[in-house]
Amino acid sequence: MTEPYEAPGDQRAQRPSRERPWLMRTYAGHSSARESNALYRRNLAKGQTGLSVAFDLPTQTGYDADHVLARGEVGRVGVPIGHLGDMRALFADIPLERTNTSMTINATAMWLLALYQVVAEEQGADIGALTGTTQNDIVKEYLARGTYVFPPGPSVRLTTDVIAYTVARMPKWNPINVCSYHLQEAGATPVQEIAYALCTAMTVLDAVRDSGQIAPEQMGDVVGRMSFFVNAGVRFVEEMCKMRAFSRLWDTITRERYGITDPAGRRFRYGVQVNSLGLTEAQPENNVQRIVLEMLAVTLSRDARARAVQLPAWNEALGLPRPWDQQWSLRIQQVLAYESDLLEYGDLFNGAPVVEAKTAELMAGAEAEMATVQAMGGVIPAVESGYLKAQLVASHAARRARMESGEDKVVGVNCFQATEPSPLTADTATAIHHVDPAYEQTVLADLRAWRTRRDETAVRTALGQLTADAAREDVNLMTATLACARAGVTTGEWSAALREVFGEYRAPTGISGAPVTAPTTAGGGMAAVREAVAGTAAEIGAGRLRLLLGKPGLDGHSNGVEQIAVRARDAGFEVIYQGIRLTPAQIVAAAVAEDVHCVGLSILSGGHAELVPEVLRRLRQSGAGDIPVIVGGIIPAADAQALRAEGVAAVFTPKDFEITAIISGIIDEIRRAHKLEPWPGRPGALAGATTEG
């Protein structure tokens, strides 16, 4: 009998040992606390190693579900948490002492952390053993995401109080996650992303150091609990070098500015959500390879590897991903971590000339921009002056102009547009998850029931103490906030008490400071649009065409509407834009008062089905029903059809990337409303107008 062949040595035994993979998360939450709890438990069963909680917009901006601004927003982009009972339901049967939980929450971070702690206590957990992160970076909310509540000064105080509290009581918790992710979404270049995030971190650390709540010898503990949350775009080499630049600059700052001598305490600890801005509605199947490339940028380099990764789903430009879509993104991570040999080796790029040169270039640029911000007095004065927002709006406008001109190629959007029908989107009605509007009524009913069951005396006492403490500078507000959580105070009541003391804030829009990015060379697309704007104004007897742009509801993602505003301004429109977070009543009142020729509404949160019809109804009631209304945002095809049936003149979605063409469409709708022929007298004459390269 032939003997079996034996290889010289066991090859498997020679493989290097593998490092532990990064935390794998899926940013998730919708409808209600109970629905989200079921989703979390399914995701954990599939191998997800951490939770990343998405809160709905009312929760993020400090409103109860029955507030007028919450209409249509409850449970849309995250889970509604209105009180302690909701937090109990969210984490039912999930042992918090053994769960690493990231919470994307900023203005109301203190409140949500208090609710989380009380639920953990009820589970019998050791508070000192809790692990996770509260994002708690308010600066980027003023610049990009829009879920701020209070002015910058009081907001930094809330952040400082959370950091001081957790360092003393929850030493394994990351109390702040300085978040440059949304800066990139708002237009930041890699240099700006690095510079503004590090300036934010320095502002927070300086505030903690100067607050008197932390002894000088504890600053190492504070720095060691700082973490970052970054974006990774599709420009693989640049994004990977960005992370190396971030790491080296942070090491220098923490050593020289804060005297941290322990190298482990100076480590740049970051999690990542790869880029959602670059996901396309056109040929959305291409988003899968974009997501993979973006993930590689933050995992291949061992010395700059993310500690936690969460990936968007391929269909996020279409609407809310389904559980299966989120599972697909989780499996992308798992294949890289467990099937490839990546985790068996050291850094693949150390000493690479291209990598070192690009990293040095990014570091130099970031240091120069940081010096500019510091010369202004730091990141808060730079926010309040409008400088940072104007820089982001300008960068985003330049990026859009490059895409429109074809300088930046986007596969399936401005090149290689011929495609076979996709089976993934054959049935657009089922290609995304739909939140049942009935859940909003369920949440409202639960909120009413909660208020009837609680001890109103205890609630009033707790809120009174919170207000009194907020009026003092020498009291950490976490103690009073925990008392509010235990007494049954609601999210809206906690925020309202602080609004009384701190006031509210409206951040600069950055539009007036943005430069012209669309050239108007003779015979070009922008020149034709400017001519049409002036000609139409003359025909209807107006000095200038007036365009009101509004963001109804709580959606703070204003990047798109800001670009429309800048381009419309450059085309010759008088643009009325008051920023985010307006009620339909406020928008209609402004439209009537300004006697506008068109109303443009921007909604990315899914609240369009409720909010747009309300604007239309109020316009008709005000005798202004003849003003054309256009809508832009992430709007499924069936919803777009329904909006047009309600009376919307035009709907634009992410596939409509040519902003000059959108402005042309606005002119067409104004002319149609005034019973004028399309400019210059034939249908579709302006529809193809684009920006020249």
Describe the structure.
With 693 residues, the chain is α/β, with parallel strands linked by helices. Helices cover 47% and strands 9% of the residues. It contains 25 helices and 15 strands. It has helices at residues 33-45, 57-61, 84-90, 109-122, 139-145, 152-169, 181-185, 190-210, 219-225, 236-256, 287-297, 323-339, 353-375, 379-384, 387-405, 438-453, 456-470, 478-487, 491-502, 525-540, 559-571, 584-594, 608-621, 637-646, 659-673, and strands at 23-25, 27-28, 51-54, 100-104, 131-134, 173-174, 176-179, 226-232, 270-274, 308-310, 546-550, 574-577, 598-603, 629-633, 650-652. Helix 24 (637-646) links the parallel strand 14 and strand 15. Helix 4 packs across helix 18, helix 10 packs across helix 13 (353-375) and helix 15 (387-405) crosses helix 21. It starts with 22 loop residues before the first strand and ends in a 20-residue tail after the last helix. Residues 1-12 and 681-693 have low confidence and may be disordered.
Give keywords.
single chain, 693 residues, alpha/beta, 5-stranded parallel beta sheet, 47% helix, disordered N terminus, disordered C terminus
